[in-house]
Design goal:
Largest sheet: 5 strands, parallel
Strand content: 15-25%
CATH class: Alpha Beta
CATH architecture: 3-Layer(aba) Sandwich
Radius of gyration: 17 Å
Bound molecules: guanosine-5'-monophosphate
Number of domains: 1
Number of helices: 7
Structural class: alpha/beta
Helix content: 40-55%
Number of strands: 9
Shape: globular
Strand order of the largest sheet: 2-7-1-8-9
Length: 192
């Protein structure tokens, strides 16, 4: 069993949708709730999508060593995984699943023994279309996210697995198969 599962990739690649489909299909996985300093989107709840923190609170927690990893993302917004989330999920006997941008994902890959990293990829024109359609950010921030997405797509090869998400159903099937095989390694071992 992986110590942690990390799903990464550019903004707009559909990580969130794929993760929701995955946890519905594969038992024993729990998604960590990250902390962020960005504004809450319509419909988001504190403690469900994110822990929404002020910059001051976030930095105090950084100083206290409460984060496994944290980054400053576009527009100066901070995001981070609280160690307490991993402890909570481990106490439930589940495998934590982290949804991270690529910098944090690489840190976890190199810093957490037993971490398995999965990169969700999509074509740039498709990413751009999704971000513009979703319209949860200002035009300026969407532009920044697209520029960063281009750079992040080039990092795909640094992760353990890559899944293309140009076709959602196919991507869900591939991700589910992959994670099932990671969760039950004994099933793939030859019987004596
Ligand atoms: P959004 O603002 O769209 O919710 O998230 C922006 C980016 O931050 C996404 O790529 C998302 O995967 C990433 N992200 C969310 N939580 C964390 C976290 O705790 N750490 C890191 N490194 N990235 C995160």
């Amino acid at each position: 069993m992986p110590a942690v599962l990390v799903v990464t990739g550019p903004s707009g690649a559909g990580k969130g949708t794929l993760i929701r489909e995955l946890v519905d299909r594969v038992p024993g996985i729990e998604v960590t709730v990250s902390a962020t300093t960005r504004d809450r989107r319509r419909g988001e709840q504190d403690g469900r999508e994110y822990w929404f923190l002020t910059d001051e609170d976030f930095l105090e927690r950084v100083a206290r060593g409460e984060f496994l990893e944290h980054v400053e993302y576009v527009s100066g917004h901070r995001y981070g995984t609280l160690r307490s989330e991993l402890e909570r999920i481990a106490a439930n006997g589940h495998v934590p699943l982290l949804e991270l941008e690529t910098e944090g994902a690489l840190r976890v890959k190199h810093g957490v023994p037993g971490a398995v990293t999965i990169f969700i990829s999509a074509r740039v024109d498709e990413l751009e279309r999704r971000l513009r359609e979703r319209a949860t950010e200002s035009a300026g921030e969407i532009g920044e996210r697209i520029e960063l997405a281009r750079q992040q797509l080039e990092q795909a090869g640094e992760f353990d697995h890559v899944i293309e998400n140009d076709d959602l159903d196919l991507a869900v099937a591939k991700l589910t198969d992959l994670v099932r095989s990671l969760m039950t390694p004994a099933a793939t071992m030859p019987r004596r």
